[in-house]
Design a protein that fits this description.
By secondary structure, the protein is an alpha+beta fold. The chain is 36% helix and 28% strand. InterPro entries: YjbR-like_sf, YjbR/MT2646/Rv2570-like.
C-alpha cells in the first residue's frame, strides 16, 4: 500500500523533477513536462508508452489500474495507490519519467537510474 507521500518522495528523487499543481492537485514534472499527478486521494495518473500499454495494464490488473472516459484515447492510466507497493510505484513513476523526459535529460541521467 502506498500513499501520496510515497509518490512525492519517489518522484522528487528523480533527476530534474519538480512539483507544481496540475488541475488543483500535486503534479510532477521533468523539465516542465508533466509525467504524473495526483487525481484525487489514493489515485495517481501516470503516462504510459502508448494506449496499447495502458490497455494491457488495465486488462492484466484491473484492481490496480483503470481509466475514465476523460482519459480515453490518451496514454495515461490511473493507479489505485492502496493496491501497489513502493517498488511497483517506483517502476511506474520511473517509466513515466523516462517517457516524458527530454532526450538531453535522458542522456545525462538515464544510465544512473537503472
Amino acid at each position: 500500500m502506498t500513499t501520496e507521500d510515497d509518490v512525492r518522495r519517489i518522484a522528487l528523487a528523480l533527476p530534474e523533477t519538480t512539483e507544481r499543481p496540475s488541475y488543483g492537485t500535486p503534479g510532477f514534472r521533468v523539465k516542465d513536462r508533466l509525467f504524473a499527478r495526483m487525481r484525487e486521494e489514493g489515485v495517481l495518473v501516470v503516462w504510459c508508452d502508448d494506449v496499447a500499454d495502458k490497455e494491457a495494464l488495465i486488462a492484466s490488473e484491473p484492481r490496480k489500474f483503470f481509466t475514465t472516459p476523460h482519459y480515453d484515447g490518451y496514454p495515461m492510466v490511473l493507479v489505485r495507490l492502496p493496491e501497489v507497493d513502493a517498488q511497483e510505484l517506483r517502476e511506474l513513476l520511473l517509466d513515466a519519467w523516462r517517457i516524458r523526459a527530454p532526450k538531453r535529460v535522458l542522456a545525462a541521467h538515464g544510465d544512473a537510474l537503472g
